[in-house]
Amino acid sequence: MTNSILIVEDDPFISISLEGLLKNNHYHVVDSIDNAEDAYNFCKNEQVDLILLDIRLSGEKTGLWLEKELKKIYYSAKIIFLTAFNDQETIDGILNSEADIYLTKPINRKSLISNIQLVLKQKTEKSIYTIAEGKKKHQLDIRSVLFIKSDGNYLIIHQQNGNKITLRKKLKEIQKEITCTQLIRVHQSFLVNKNFVTTISSTHIFVEQNKIPISKPYRGKVRTFFRHE
Prior knowledge:
The chain is α/β, with parallel strands linked by helices. The protein is 34% helix and 33% strand. Strands 2-1-3-4-5 form a 5-stranded parallel β-sheet. The protein has a 5-stranded antiparallel β-sheet with strand order 10-9-8-12-11. Strands 13-14-15 form a 3-stranded antiparallel β-sheet, with no helix packed on it. The chain starts with a strand and ends with a helix.
């Protein structure tokens, strides 16, 4: 299946050049948008595999703003930042983001394609994570995880076939270690694997036969996420 890419770039010459390069390399360009707010509205209705995102855009909102807003709605696209700036404020913004790569302008065409290939390969293949617990290391296959429950200072990882793993770790810590998009936060004490969700109500989400509460702060995000799946 051809990977889909959204271009968010306010320089029409660069945008046209990127679109031609991507199409010549057999990528599907779903759209080219010149500002962050229109790109956000597009993404609320469409899912893409990768966003090429300029940091300084026309309008009040930046590419950094767009990246943060998309993470709030659990948007799963990979992001490559494009920027002509290397000032400390821009670099700090990139380092504090969850973007996969950033490239400086003028963009090297071969470098861009190789980085796109790398990022998309990571998106499709990453499923095994190494979880640290003190000096111990645990190999965790996300494809087998139903949900993760926080119980005080411990986490209980519920897997298929009734298997469980208990770790002395906080939920926010494991969220930093597991960067995949399959696990979504629905409650202060629960992460669920979207691939095993069977039913959603206004207050609960069912992961196979497990009834898990959706806390009020997450309800809007959960509804938005599954509406666009």
